[in-house]
Write a structure and sequence with these properties.
This protein is mainly α. The protein has a domain of 48 residues. Helices cover 83% and strands 0% of the residues. The protein has six helices and no strands.
């Protein structure tokens, strides 16, 4: 028995109104999931803007001069990293990169 057959058999026991309600709930759940995804994207964009600016880069250069060797090396790795890896460093060490 295929998945389609199982779904068809389970749907036969429901009225048309019940099936429409189920579809509506699924549509609402899909919309909520899409809105949650958009919210997360906006949150990530805001977080990106808080650390990805010239003022913060200047702060990091100063911090590399004044801080310990670990901070200096992590900040050096940040400035050497490509745009795909910079956010990973920021997520791993927010206390260093996020003002």
């Amino acid at each position: 028995m295929t998945h389609y057959d199982r779904c068809r058999r389970s749907a036969e026991s429901h009225t048309t109104n019940e099936l429409v309600e189920m579809i509506d709930k699924l549509d609402k759940a899909t919309l909520v999931a899409e809105e949650l995804h958009m919210f997360r994207a906006l949150k990530d964009e805001y977080a990106y803007r808080t650390w990805n600016n010239q003022e913060n880069y200047n702060r990091l250069h100063e911090s590399a001069k004044m801080g310990g060797s670990f901070n200096r090396d992590i900040i050096a790795a940040f400035f050497s990293a490509d745009n795909n890896n910079k956010p990973r460093l920021v997520e791993a060490f927010p206390e260093i990169f996020i003002p």
